[in-house]
What does this fold into?
Amino acid sequence: MASIGTIAPSSLSRKDLLWQIVWDKERCAFCGRCTAVCPVHAIELGVFRKRLLQVAAGMETQPSNVYQVFYGIRQKTDPAYSCIGCGTCTLVCPNDCIIPIRNDEIDKLRFHINRGGQPRRRGGRRNVPEGILDRIKFVRISMLTDPALDAGRHEFELRTILGRVLPPEETLKLYKEEGWSPPVREIYPLIIGSMSFGALSPTMWEGLQMGVAYLNEELGMPVRMCTGEGGCPPRLLRSRFMKYVILQIASGYFGWDEIIHAIPEMKEDPCAVEIKYGQGAKPGDGGLLMWYKVNKLIAAIRGVPPGVSLPSPPTHQTLYSIEEAVAKMIQSLYMAWGFRVPVYPKISGTSTALAVLNNLTRNPYAAGLAIDGEDGGTGAAYNVSMDHMGHPIASNIRECYLNLVKVGKQNEIPLFAAGGIGKRGNLAANAAALIMLGASGVQIGKYIMQAAAGCVGSETDRCNICNIGLCPKGITSQDPRIYRRLDPEKVAERVVDVFLSFDTELKKIVAPLGRSTSLPIGMSDALGIDDYHAAERLQIKYVV
Amino acid sequence: MCRLFAITSDDPLSPMVAIKALEIMKEGYDGSGVGLFLTDLGGSFEEIKEAPILSGIFSHSGIKKLDQFMMELGFMTKYKLSFKTSKNPPPGVPKRDVYLVRAYEYPEGWEGLSREEIEHRLMTIRLTLRHMGEETGDIVVFSFWPDVIMIKEVGDPMDVAEYLQLDRKELCARIIMAQGRQNTNYAINLYACHPFFIQGIATMTNGENTAFVPIKEFLMSRGFPGYIGYQSDSEVFTHILHYIHKKLGLGIEYYKHVITPLQDQDLEHHPQGSFLKVLKETCRRLIIDGPNCVIGVLPDKSMFMVQDRKKLRPGIVGGSEGIFAFSSEACALEFAIPNRDKTKDFQPMHLDTVVVSPDRKEMKIWRQSEPLPLPL
It folds into this structure.
C-alpha cells in the first residue's frame, strides 16, 4: 500500500494479525519450501526494492544512491490469507530461518474474519487453554493404614462397563428366568471418541483403527473407537475388527444406508451404537463437513453427492420429545442387532443434562450416557459455538453421578465424560479425576490427534483449520497430496504408545490411592482442589 | 491394623479367652478399644435362646428413655446381666452409667408374625433407639437380636474386660468374636468399633477398604433402613454380606465373588463363569479394594474368614473337631487351641473362603476358581 493510498476497513498490517512471520534473510536459501507448503498461502515470494547509499572514499565523488531488488518472504495481510501459526514453514525450512510468532496483543484480525457475512468457522477446541481438571489433585494417599501399591508390579483391573447394568436383584432374577438382560461390554476406560471418516483423513482413520486392533489383539487391552457421524468403510463393517468399533448415528444419518445393508454380512456385532444428540464443541448445532472435504470416497460412504457441504440438522428429524428419542430411537437401534448391542446417547454438556439422565434411568435400554463438555473438539463449527456455548464437563458429570447416587442407580447407567481431557497434556490425571468424580470412562479426540499424529492445533488459536481440508499434517484432509504425509503405520504405533503410557500413568495414580481391584469410579474422597467454590460444587475436599 | 480373634467351640467359653488372645497379640498394637460379639450363648442365656437381647451403653437418663420406649412397645424384661464396675474406670476408659445386656420377652401382639417380619421389627427398634441417642449420646445400642450379645468400649481390651468383670460364669458363648482396636481411619466413635452387626450377621476386619465411599453410597441408596452408620469403612463388609445374603439370596461362597470377583481370563475357565460374569457386572459397585481380612459369623452360626484380592493382611484358621479359632496372628491361635494339628492350620490367600459350619467338624475351604457348590 502506498503511504497515501486508500485504506479499506479490512486493511490490516502485519501487526494486526494474530500470527506474524519472522523471516531471517541472512539464513534463507530461497528454496521456496515454506511458500509451497503453507496451507493457507499466507506467505509468498516477495520482491522488495531497497535503496542503497553509496558513499565513496574521499571528497571527489558525491554520495549517491542505487536501487536494488532483493527477494524474500512476504506475509499477506489480507484476512483471507492470514497466517494460522501452524508452523509448517518452520518444519520444512532447511535453515531454520522462518517461524510464526504470536502477536503480543489481541489481534485485529478477529474483527474481519466474516467476509461476505459468513462468520468464522474453524476446527479445534474452545480457545481457552486453562481448565478446572488440571487443578484437581489426588489427596488421599495410602501409606500406613493401607499400604500403597506398586504400580509397576501389582495386578490391576482397570476396566469399565459400557452397557446398562440392572440392579443385582433384577439381574439375578432375569438370569434364573433366562430373560433378556441388556448387553454389556467390558472395555478400557479410555475411548477414542467420535471422529468421522470424512472429518479425518483416510490415513488417520486407518492408523487409529490399526492401533486399536493391535491394542486389542496383541496387548489384550479392550480399547474401543467411535466412528463419528460419517459411516464406516464397507470392508471394516464386514471384518472381525467391527467388535472394536462404536458406530455413531447422528442427525444427518450419514453412512447408515451402507451400515444397515452390511448388517446381514457382519461377522461381529459392533461394540455399541452411540446416538449423537449433541457435541461439546458446538452444542445445539449439527455436524458439519464442509464441501472442501467431500470427495468421491467420502461421498460414496456417506451416500451423498461429492463437493457439497454436509451440515447435519441440530436435532434428529424424528424427535418430538425426549421420551420419543429415548424410547424409539434407542429401541430401534437395539432391534437392528437383535438386542445384542448396547445403544447409548451422547449429549453436549448442558445444565439440562440431569433431565436427560433422569429420563434415561427410567428406560432399561439406555446403555449409558456420554456427555461432551465445552472443551470438546470438532472438525468444523462456528467459532462462536466453540468459544461460548456449552457446559464444563467436571460439574456436569459430578451432578449427574450424584443424582444417580440419590436414586441408587450409580454405574447402572455408566456416564462417559468427554471434552478437553488432556487439553494441557495431562491425560491420565484428567481422566482419573473425572472417573473419581463419577465417570465410568472418558473419550478423547483432539488428544489422540495431537499425540498420535502430531496435530499442531492449540487453544491459543494455532492452526485450527481442520474444516477446510488443508491440515498441514494430513490428519483432517481429504486431499491425497496432503494426507499422504501421514503414514498410517506410524499413527498406529503412536496410538499404542499413547495407550500404554496412559495405562502406566493411570496405575501411578490409583496405586498410591490403594486401588487396584476395580476402577475407582466415584471415589470422590480421593480428590481435592484449591478453590473453595469448586470444591463445594464438586463435593470434594477443599485443600490449600 | 486391628487384632482380630474369633473362636467357635462346642463347649461354651468365657469371652476372656478372646480377650487373652488379643493380649497375646498385643505387641505392635495400640490397644485402643475392644469389641466383643457373642452368640450361640451358654450360661444364663442358654435357656432363653429366642428372646431378643439388647446390648448397649446408656446414661441414667438414657435408661429411663429406653424403659419407657420398650414398655410402650410391650417388651418385658426377661433377664438382665448387671455389670458392677469399680468407681473409677482404668485410664483411657470413659466413665459410663450403665453397660446393658438385657433379654426381653416379645410383646404379645408379635405372636404369629413371620420370621422375616420379626427380624425387620427387631432391626427397626435397634435403629430407632440408636437414633434416639444420637443427639445427646445417652443411648448407644450395638445389637437387639436373639442369642446375641455385643460389648464395645474404648480402652485397652484387658483393662476393659477386668473393669467389666467379663470373667463370670453367666457370660459364655460357643461363638466369640473379638477385636482390639478403635477406629483408625475415621473419628473415634463407639459405633465405629468392630464387630458390626445386622440381622444375625456380624463381621470384623483389619485393614482399610479404599473403595469405601462408592460402596457406602451404593448401600445407602438401596432404600434399606439398616444400611446406615459407616463411621468405619469396615462396616460395609457386614452390610455387603447382608445384602447378598438377604437381598440376593446368595450364600457365603458367593461373598468373595462379589467383593473381589475373578478377572475375566479366570472367569472364562470357570465352570460357572457365565453366571459369575453377570454377578461381577451387576455387583461391581460392591467390589472392595483392600487390604482386608474379614472374619464373620452368619445367621446359621457358621464362622468364616476371607481375604481381599491383594492378600496383604494376616489371617489364620486352625483347630480340631469341636473347636476352631480364626485369628489375625498365629500366636493367638496357638494360645487358644494349643493341642491342634498344626499342619492343618490354614492361612487363606486371595481366592479362599474358609468356613467352619455350626457342627464344627472341619474347616471347609472354597477357592474362587473352583466350581460353586450350588449352581444357580
Remarks:
- Chain B is about 25% helix and 25% strand.
- Chain B has a mean pLDDT of 92.
- Chain B has one domain: 4-367.
